[in-house]
From TrEMBL:
One Gene Ontology MF term: ATP binding
Annotated InterPro entries: GHMP_kinase_C_sf, Mev_decarb, Mev_diP_decarb, MVD-like_N, Mvd1_C, Ribosomal_Su5_D2-typ_SF, Ribsml_uS5_D2-typ_fold_subgr
Superkingdom as given in the UniProt entry: Bacteria
Protein name in UniProt: diphosphomevalonate decarboxylase
Length: 329
């Protein structure tokens, strides 16, 4: 028996940037994200008595034991919860650049959580599946659901989970990814946020910023107010990245093309397009926009970045279980 699951990446509009418990992946703050249809991970899990260790294949290549430690640790948790003792063959295909600020770990661990839990015989609700996915990657807790999703920081393992705000948004919203650089980033998300929590003097203020932004953005979603949603997301991203600059030592995920994209989106908005930017732990810029402005947006950005580096995404679905397994080769 094998089980195959597909999960999509999500991009936070209000970000959590910092953990208060690294073992349980409990965040410092709440957060809210948009799941995207264009970026996803498909994973097949097969528990097999013949194996003497977990085998992890990624995009057709066997991953070394050293590099697969996070996956093996997660599978140990699934074995602990299910009572299963067999090792498993895990086969994943990523339709998203890894470690480039496009939430590849979110889709990867959400898909792994779904496939592994089901193949191990665990009958989990979506709420409990989001709690399990969180143990692999914090943002994976949101990728269990589609559309606009809130992650409750909670106070412990049981109360830190995601739930949908609008699984299918009832207003027009889209996101365009400007792929400035899809190579692996020099500062990991986990390392960056840990340094910020420990050293940035502005971190206490950040918690208050997120509290206010969460209230405001949920009100804007209820009012179908895309300009306010976009404004909140853009300012929230800038304040998150200000934490990085103020850390010790300070660092940034931006490069020159990131700044060019930010300045271009600001200019286009001033010229009348309904567009706003956000960035995560990487140089790539995501543009929140009204789909009716898509042609104008692409026409303005293509000469600067090239059509092949612009990917338009719509709100994506939650976790899906597929009948066909992922093949190793």
């Amino acid at each position: 028996m094998t089980t195959t699951a597909r999960a999509h990446t999500n991009i936070a509009l209000v970000k959590y940037w910092g953990k208060r418990d690294a073992a349980l992946m409990l965040p410092q703050t709440d957060s809210l994200s948009l799941t995207l249809d264009e970026f996803y991970t498909t994973t097949t899990v097969n528990f097999n008595q013949a194996l003497n260790e977990d085998q992890f294949y990624l995009d057709g290549e066997l991953v070394s034991a050293n590099k697969a430690q996070k996956v093996v640790k997660f599978m140990d948790l699934v074995r602990q919860l299910s009572g299963r003792t067999e090792y498993a063959q895990i086969t994943s295909v990523n339709n998203v650049p890894m470690a480039a600020g496009l939430a590849s770990s979110a889709s990867a661990f959400a898909a792994l959580a779904g496939a592994a839990a089901k193949d191990a015989g665990l009958d989990l609700s979506l709420k409990d599946l989001s709690r399990l996915a969180r143990r692999g990657s914090g943002s994976a807790t949101r990728s269990v659901y589609g559309g606009l999703v809130e992650w409750h920081r909670g106070v412990d393992d049981a109360t830190s989970f995601a739930e949908p705000v609008q699984e299918v948004p009832d207003f027009d919203i889209a996101m365009l990814a400007i792929l400035v650089d899809t190579s692996q980033k020099k500062v990991s998300s986990r390392g960056g946020m840990q340094l910020v929590v420990e050293t940035s003097p502005y971190y206490p203020a950040w918690r208050e910023v997120v509290k206010r932004d969460m209230v405001a953005i949920k009100e804007a979603i209820a009012n179908r107010d895309l300009p306010t949603i976009g404004h909140i997301a853009q300012e929230n991203a800038l304040r998150m990245h200000a934490l990085n600059l103020a850390a010790d030592p300070g660092f940034t995920y931006f490069d020159g093309q990131t700044i060019l994209a930010m300045q271009t989106i600001d200019r286009l908005r001033e010229e009348g397009l309904n567009c706003y930017y956000t960035m995560d732990a990487g140089p790539n810029v995501k543009v929140i926009f009204d789909p009716k402005d898509q042609d104008d947006l692409l026409n303005a950005l293509t000469p600067l970045f090239g059509a092949e580096r612009l990917v338009v995404a719509k709100p994506g679905p939650g976790i899906e279980f597929l009948t066909e397994p992922v093949m190793k080769f």
